[in-house]
Every structure is written in structure tokens, then in C-alpha cells.
Amino acid sequence: MTLYGIGLGPGEPELVTVRGKRILEDVDVVYSPGRLSRTVATEHVPEARIGDLDFPMTRDEEKLRRAWKEAAAEIAPRAREGDAAFVTLGDPNVYSTFGHLRRTLDAFHPDVDLEVVPGVSAMTAFATALGVEVPAGSGLALREADQGRSPTGPDRMILFKVTDAPATHEGLVDAGYDVTYGRRLFMEQGETVVTEDPGEIDERDYYTLAYATRSDAAEALATAQFETTDGHSGPVTEERAEGVACGDESPEVRSDD
Ligand SMILES: C[S@@+](CC[C@H](N)C(=O)[O-])C[C@H]1O[C@@H](n2cnc3c(N)ncnc32)[C@H](O)[C@@H]1O
């Protein structure tokens, strides 16, 4: 039988994928590494089918290895006898605890069949939540900014683990970035905040990310002219459309996404 690693998405139960929901409904037992993922999972499965795992709050690597070995020893027999799931917020393969479980199973229980069901990651959900577009042709880097760190370099970055927004902000602005913060995006637990003001989110909350762009990072996009030709956006009149069409010497029309 199978152990499914299921990505639950950013937190709203409706953002669990159709496949993820179907598997959650079918498996015998569902394990969750934390309170938030458990809250999302229990929107789709009864509490009685949630399995018990104990994870210590520690950075001590020896204690963590022991905890993962114990977790794998609990999960492996259930995934041999029947179907089981391990859920994580976002996607199981993006900055996720699922990686620890997979490595531990590979090492100590290699006979367990694993299947991963992708989830909507904060890495992509942020764009809709913040109302920004990552245009085709642009580069985008993922970095961590815990403990007030301000990683710099790429023109566009998503920063995870923004736990001290004012300190991170200072470094980013000094390096020439515009920054927008998102806290608890598409989450039902806690307040969702989208802001450019780090003072609004100066209390530590692990579920905070930032999108940082260099002020001069801009791609030449054919349709950008619709927004700027006569200085305003809105419905395109025939005259505006003509102006736009004249300005566009080599429109490239593609549909590849
Ligand atoms: C360990 S990573 C987990 C990423 C997750 N596996 C994913 O694919 O979205 C945790 C970091 O992701 C970001 N994050 C995850 N979910 C978020 C949400 N709903 N709103 C804002 N940030 C979120 C935060 O920066 C948090 O510190």
C-alpha cells in the first residue's frame, strides 16, 4: 500500500487540490506535523482518522533525527498495512518537513511506497495575494530571511521566514529593493495582512513572507502599453487601440502556459 505526501496549500481548506482531497478522504490514517496543517486536514477528514506524532520544538539535530526516526517507525507499518497520508502546508517538496520524513523512510523503511501530491505553495500563492505579476521572462529567487536577515542579489526575490520585518526591511531598502509583505495569506487562522510598511507587522509571525524587487527590474511586455500609452488604464477606446497598435512593431502572440 502507499504513503501519500499531500500538500494542503497555504491554509484555506478550499485550496486543497481535488486529488489531495480525494486521497485524504480515502486513506486509513492522516498524519500532520503541526497544528495548522491539522486544522486544514480536519476540514476534510474526521479527527478520529488523524494519527498522533510528537515533534519537539528544538534545533538540536540529534533530537530531531530521533524524532523523525520515531515518526517513521509509527508511520511505516500503517503504510504497509493500508494507505496513509502525511500532510504539509503548501507543497510537500518546497521548504517542507516532508523532506525529513522521506529521507528517514528511505534510510530505515525503504520498502514503503511513497507518492507525492503537490499543493499550492506560498511561493506561487503570494503573487495573487499581493496583487503582483511575475512576468514571463523575469527571474525569481527564493531565499530565507529569518532573524532579520536581508539577503540581496537577484532582481526579484521571495523571502520566506520573515520573522523580524523591520530589520529585514532596512537591509533590503538600503540595497535598492521595493518590498511588499504578506502575512497569513489564504489562511483562515489569524489575520491576513498585505503591506509595504514593516511597522505594521513588527510582531513575529512565522507565516510571513516578502516579495522584493529592484526598482529598475522591468521586462518589456507587449501588452504593458495598454496600461501606459495615454497615461491611464481602463477600457481601450478605438483611438487608444490604434495608438497602441501603431506603437507595437513586432507583437509576439503566444499561448504556452
Ligand atoms: C518552511 S516554509 C513552508 C513552505 C511551504 N511548504 C510552501 O510550499 O508554501 C514556511 C515559510 O513559508 C511562508 N509561508 C507559508 N505559508 C504561508 C502563508 N499562507 N502566508 C504567508 N507566508 C507563508 C512563510 O514565510 C513561512 O515562514
CATH architecture of the largest domain: 3-Layer(aba) Sandwich
How far the N terminus sits from the C terminus, by CA atoms, comes to 35 Å
Shape: globular
Structural class by secondary-structure content: alpha/beta
Note the total helix count. 8
**Main sheet record:** 5 strands, mixed
Percent in strands: 15-25%
Radius of gyration, Cα only, in angstroms? 22 Å
Taken together, the total number of domains comes to 2
- The CATH homologous superfamily of the largest domain is named Tetrapyrrole methylase, N-terminal domain
Ligands in the structure?
S-adenosylmethionine
The CATH class assignment of the largest domain is Alpha Beta
Pathway: Cofactor biosynthesis; adenosylcobalamin biosynthesis
EC number: 2.1.1.151
Domain Tetrapyrrole methylase: 2-135
Pfam family, one: TP_methylase
Task: Describe this protein's structure.
Belongs to the precorrin methyltransferase family. Keywords: Cobalamin biosynthesis, Methyltransferase, Transferase. It is an enzyme of class 2 (transferase). Pathway: Cofactor biosynthesis; adenosylcobalamin biosynthesis. Its EC number is 2.1.1.151. With 257 residues, this protein is α/β, with parallel strands linked by helices. It has two domains: 119 residues, 3-Layer(aba) Sandwich (Cobalt-precorrin-4 Transmethylase, domain 1); 92 residues, Tetrapyrrole methylase, C-terminal domain (Methyltransferase, Cobalt-precorrin-4 Transmethylase, Domain 2, 2-Layer Sandwich). 32% of the residues lie in helices and 18% in strands. It has eight helices and nine strands. A five-stranded mixed sheet has the order 5-6-9-7-8, sandwiched between helices. Helix 3 packs across helix 4. The relative contact order is 0.13. The C terminus is likely disordered. Bound molecules: S-adenosylmethionine. The site of S-adenosylmethionine has 24 residues, from helix 5, strand 7 and strand 9.
